[in-house]
Write a structure and sequence with these properties.
Elements lengths: L4 H20 L6 H20 L12 H18 L3 H18 L10 H9 L8 H9 L5 H20 L7 E3 L2 E3 L5 H19 L2
Antiparallel strand pairs: 1-2
Helix pairs in contact: 1-2, 1-8, 2-4, 2-8, 3-4, 5-6, 7-8
Length: 203
């Protein structure tokens, strides 16, 4: 993705740490927590790979289609299980993966300058070199859809982040009652929301 290298590596570290914690929670806790941990772990691993700076690690040409297949299936599974947020997460990953298809830095795809030169040397194609150069300036995604996803994740991070503020544990019969979702897992969900917001902002 067109992310500055420093931002990309920070996202990789954030997502890798989040994915590692979520993977450690897959076999512990109630079933609902394990399901949430599996979904967050998949998202974290996918985002860590997608956030790798293209200037350092050139993704292969088939990578966007692999993301589309994996997260398309994850979105369908989340819809069947009635987990709307995980479905939105997975569909956002599909959207970003498809946006990567049109990027010139994908393996096997020539950069716009070389493409324009090759087109200029072909009979009847000289007039299309301006269009090839103009395509580089166009955003890879759909601006309206990108804006809607940015708004969704901004609201999600604000709401989920506000739930991290301690309000004092509830008690029943003098014993403290722990929330259904561990605080660290909720913090991971906020971190993933911030990561998605940053990656969508780069489109």
């Amino acid at each position: 993705m067109p992310i500055p290298p420093l931002v990309g590596w920070l996202l990789v570290l954030l997502c890798a740490a989040t994915g590692g914690y979520c993977l450690s929670r897959i076999r512990t806790g109630p079933p609902a927590q394990r399901v949430a941990a599996r979904g967050e772990a998949l998202m974290a691993c996918g985002m860590a790979v997608m956030a790798l700076p293209a200037s350092v690690v050139t993704p292969p040409a088939w990578m966007p289609w692999l993301f589309t297949a994996v997260f398309g299936a994850a979105a369908l599974w989340a819809l069947v299980r009635r987990h709307p947020h995980h479905a939105v997460d997975s569909l956002a990953m599909v959207y970003m993966a498809l946006a990567m298809v049109g990027m010139p830095d994908m393996a096997g795809m020539p950069a716009d300058g070389r493409m324009a030169t090759e087109m200029a040397g072909m009979p009847g194609m000289a007039g299309m070199t301006g269009a090839a150069g103009g395509a580089h300036a166009a955003p890879p995604g759909i601006p309206l859809l990108t804006g809607l996803l940015l708004a969704y994740y901004a609201v999600y991070v604000l709401i989920a982040g506000s739930r991290l503020v301690p309000t004092g544990p509830a008690s029943v019969g003098g014993a403290a009652v722990r929330p259904d979702t561990p605080v660290v897992l909720r913090a991971c969900q906020v971190a993933m929301g911030l990561g998605m917001f940053a990656m969508l902002l780069a489109l």
